[in-house]
Design brief:
The protein has three domains: about 80 residues, no CATH class; about 170 residues, ACT domain (Alpha-Beta Plaits), CATH 3.30.70.260; about 140 residues, Porin (Beta Barrel). The chain has nine helices and 13 strands. By secondary structure, the chain is α+β, with helices and mostly antiparallel strands.
């Protein structure tokens, strides 16, 4: 008799515990519906039977065997509890995001280097924007790189230019991932139970209600799966945002690349008209030094054709400058840049000292950053003690940047 009482109590308590657990889980998962309630209520009233047994009724009828559905529910609940305990400690997952701003000397070169480093580290360029506004060029790039290579990749980016700002954040998303996994697990179990109930539904109304609940559960499951994929990707790959600005090339050039002087050599000749007297021609060479076209000093020494004297027959020292025509290229072309100029200086001709005033018409035959070859013609007025004279001076010169 005692053995019978123990068996009755055990069956009643187990059945009552299994049903209550199923009801609580269905309600917590948001899947409780009248059809589920009807299924649970259809189970034998184990609570009443257990109460009668505890009251000491010896002649109570033998307890009914535990239904298979209740046994399956209890086994599933035990399995779920074990899995929940195994997942109780979420592992660490970090979402790394970095923002860098750089000042680079050449934007195109820096962009090529950044893309090359991203590929070398196993990364992918997800966004690439280049802006060119009023001569100021900038680029904004987003790159996803494997989390394990993010530190080395950030060091690579630092070497592309001057870092003006840097911010790196690491957010732990392990708890969020773990909670989403648990919610997905519970929804999948609830979905499986609804599918079992659907197989036993008797009326069209019950079938429609269960199908609606199944559709809702499937949508929630897909949403959670998508969230888990997103979180896993954020933890697997870091996101690096790089903003690069190109230095002002004109400012950089004025600081370090613009030459201060342009020394050069010249081949010259001078033809003078002495009114009614015959013309006098001289040939020679000269040197020039100055700050480019704007201001320069030239010293020329010449001898008469067929002269036997040991010294120079003519010396011309002038100071002047030239300007380019904006309508004819402004001096920016590599070939054939015309210019006009004016000069003033000292001339010693045939032992006499004269004042030289002149104008220049010339053209740069070839021009680069480091050297210039030009040809010009200068018309001088020579004024001294004697009658004024005119002088025509063609020249061919070469200057280098210094």
């Amino acid at each position: 008799m005692r053995l019978g009482l123990v068996l009755v109590c055990s069956a009643g308590v187990c059945l009552e515990t299994g049903c209550a657990h199923a009801v609580r889980e269905a309600k917590s998962a948001g899947s409780w519906s009248p059809s589920v309630a009807a299924t649970v209520e259809a189970a034998p009233d184990a609570s009443a039977q257990s109460t009668a047994t505890r009251a000491g009724i010896a002649d109570a009828p033998a307890p009914a065997p535990v239904p298979d559905e209740a046994r399956a529910s209890l086994a599933q609940a035990a399995e779920g509890a074990a899995e929940g305990a195994a997942r109780a400690a979420p592992h660490e997952m970090l979402d790394i995001e970095a923002h860098l701003a750089l000042l680079v000397p050449d934007l195109n070169v820096a962009l090529r280097g950044l893309r090359k480093q991203a590929v070398a580290r196993g990364g992918t360029v997800t966004s690439d924007l280049v802006r060119d506004e009023a001569g100021s060029r900038a680029a904004t790039i987003a790159i996803r790189v494997p989390a394990g290579a993010s530190v080395d990749f950030l060091d690579d980016v630092d070497r592309l230019g001057e870092v003006t700002s840097r911010q790196v954040t690491a957010t732990d998303i392990g708890r969020e991932y773990h909670d989403s996994e648990l919610a997905l697990h519970n929804l999948e179990r609830t979905l499986a139970r609804y599918e079992e109930i659907l197989q036993k539904a008797q009326s069209v109304e019950e079938i429609l209600k269960i199908e609606a609940e199944l559709s809702r559960l499937r949508g929630e499951i897909e949403r959670l799966k998508g969230s888990l994929r997103y979180l896993a990707d954020r933890a697997a790959r870091s996101t690096v945002y790089v903003v690069m600005h190109e230095r002002d090339k004109q400012v950089a050039q004025s600081r370090s690349e613009v030459a201060k002087f342009f020394p050069g050599l010249r081949a010259v000749s001078l033809t003078r008209w002495r009114g009614e007297r015959s013309t006098v021609s001289t040939l020679g060479a000269g040197v020039a030094v100055g700050a480019g076209r704007s201001l320069n000093l030239e010293v020329d020494g010449m001898k008469h054709a067929g002269s036997t004297s040991s010294g120079l027959d003519a010396v011309l020292v002038t100071l002047g400058g030239d300007v380019y025509s904006d309508f004819l290229g402004g001096g920016q072309r590599g070939f054939l840049n015309p210019y006009l100029g004016a000069r003033v200086g000292y001339a010693r001709l045939a032992g006499a000292n004269d004042l030289a005033l002149g104008a220049t018409l010339g053209v740069e035959l070839w021009k680069s950053k480091y050297a210039t070859i030009d040809a010009d013609v200068r018309l001088f007025g020579l004024f001294g003690k004697g009658p004024a004279e005119l002088g025509l001076q063609p020249t061919l010169g070469a200057n280098v940047a210094f």
